[in-house]
Write a structure and sequence with these properties.
- By secondary structure, this protein is an alpha/beta fold.
- It has two domains: 217 residues, Nucleotidyltransferase, domain 5 (2-Layer Sandwich); 224 residues, 2-Layer Sandwich (Nucleotidyltransferase, domain 5).
- 39% of the residues lie in helices and 22% in strands.
- It contains 18 helices and 21 strands.
- A seven-stranded mixed β-sheet has the order 17-18-16-15-19-20-21, sandwiched between helices.
- The model has no long low-confidence stretch (mean pLDDT 97).
């Protein structure tokens, strides 16, 4: 007996079989497939039909003996259905340029601070709020034909069950969800000019939506980070994590939203978690840089792998240059090396030349960014975190794990790699009555999971490196 966890990531999708015996989790990858955006006519969209075909293929292979199916994906992106329930167009990619200038346009209709006070969500141009606002401003006719808004995993759930529902953790990434009301924020929606009636009811993680051929369709935490955090292998009630992949999400789990001046000023976010918790965190650029560098170099016929890049980084001199990972010049897809060189040139630093120098620049920059963000998190919570749990695909990068430990001065505990799929399964298992709560599952993972520990090393002057980095990003 098992559940099927479908994890749709920004670079690939996976269909996993997850078994739970009461004292251990077993996980098997049934199907993995690439998720390649489509650029056409200046628009960047997701190839949703390809993702759907591959998802159904994987479910078919894993379906025998399954008790439940759950789907998660990255946040903020969505599809619009017409009044007959047909998808109107391929969902846009959050890196599409249509959100340029939309934050300022929205703030003319409701102030930045009021939006934060109503949602507690970090301000990013890619948020759903600004994607939808671009439709109000530039494509009102399309919006007027819409019958329903569905987040990316909600759309797949609709195709599986016919039920139009939005899952809570994914809805909280939109900057249209009010955590005090526990539902959509009507005032923001009306201020921007969006139709209220397109937003379906919101359901919690662990809700059984329906069935497909007698197999339950159960909502996990449909936001992939929400699922990943559910699988942090700890018995401690207070912990710090980095959910590491295309993005790095650094934060902690709290009982209720933290909406105050410090969170607003530091641009942290409050996203829905499992068991009624809140994920207090900051979204940070992560292995996006490595993915784009690898794509660029392989495209130029270099025979390199992720493992090669780690070895190059170790063998390259540290701290020769840094980038600000948040600089808008790094947001769009495309060749990354000329942009890194341009940034270093414009800031009077050494210009990286070799692959090793480029990847070391990225790793060093991310490590000191983690240190900076951890300090901010501790200032908000008033707590000191002695360990950092790095979970997700990025936890396989041993070099980055060690650099994170060195830069922060904290022990890094790496794993599970498939945290999102396990966390997805955990909430399905709770929904169908096979688990009592997330803490039962975390306790099992803490006891049985083989974890890797990275303790801080001395001998490298991270303090000076940190000072140089902070001078760059505060110019």
């Amino acid at each position: 007996m098992h559940v099927i966890a479908v994890d749709l990531g920004a670079s690939n999708g996976r269909v996993m079989k997850v078994e739970y015996t009461g004292d251990a989790f077993g996980i098997e990858e049934v199907h993995r497939f690439p998720n390649t955006p489509v650029e056409r006519g200046g628009r960047l969209t997701w190839d949703i039909q390809q993702l759907w075909r591959e998802t159904i293929k994987g479910i078919g292979w894993a379906n025998e003996g399954a008790q439940s199916i759950g789907i998660d994906s990255w946040g903020v992106d969505f599809g619009l259905l017409d009044h007959e329930g047909t998808l109107m167009e391929d969902p846009f990619h959050y890196r599409d340029q249509r959100t340029e200038g939309m934050m300022e346009w929205v703030f003319e209709r409701m102030s930045r601070r009021e939006i934060f006070d109503r949602t507690g969500v970090q301000f990013l141009p890619l948020n759903t709020l600004y994607q939808l606002a671009s439709l109000v401003k530039r494509r009102k006719r399309t919006l007027n034909k819409a019958g329903a808004y569905l987040g990316f995993p909600d759309l797949f759930n609709f195709w599986l069950t016919g039920e139009k529902r939005c899952e809570l953790t994914h809805a909280t990434t939109t900057q249209l969800f009010n955590p005090f009301k526990g539902t959509w924020d009507d005032e923001i929606i009306e201020a921007v000019g969006l139709p209220l009636d397109i937003f379906p009811p919101i359901v919690k993680p662990g809700t059984i939506l329906g069935a497909m051929k007698s197999v339950n369709i159960t909502t996990p935490a449909c936001h992939d980070t929400g699922s990943a955090v559910a699988a942090v292998p700890t018995k401690a009630r207070e912990f710090c994590y980095i959910s590491s992949g295309t993005w790095s999400l650094l934060g902690t789990e709290v009982a209720s939203p933290t909406i105050n001046d410090a969170v607003y000023d530091l641009n942290f976010t409050n996203e829905g978690g499992v068991e009624g918790t809140t994920r207090l965190l900051r979204n940070l650029p992560g292995f996006w840089f490595q993915q784009e560098l690898l794509r660029e170099w392989v495209g130029k016929r270099a025979a390199v792998t992720n493992d090669d890049l780690q070895e190059m980084a170790v063998n390259s001199e540290p701290f020769r240059c840094f980038i600000d990972p948040w600089d808008p010049m790094f947001m769009a897809p495309g060749d990354m090396t000329p942009r890194i060189v341009q940034y270093c040139r414009s800031t009077g630093q050494h210009e990286p030349k070799s692959m090793g120098e480029h990847i070391r620049c990225v790793y060093d920059s991310l490590a000191v960014l983690y240190r900076h963000t951890l300090g901010q998190l501790e200032s908000i919570t008033g707590k000191t975190y002695q360990h950092i749990h790095i979970i997700g695909g990025g936890s396989q990068n041993k070099v980055m794990n060690q650099l994170t430990a060195d830069a922060t001065g904290r022990t890094v505990i790496a794993g599970p790699v498939e945290a999102t799929a396990i966390g997805n399964a955990i909430m399905q298992l709770k929904g169908i009555g096979m688990l009592d709560d997330v803490w039962e599952a975390r306790g099992v993972l803490a006891e049985r999971l083989v974890q890797q520990f990275y303790r801080p090393k001395t001998g490298v002057d991270w303090d000076t490196a940190y000072t140089r980095f902070m001078e760059l990003i505060t110019q």
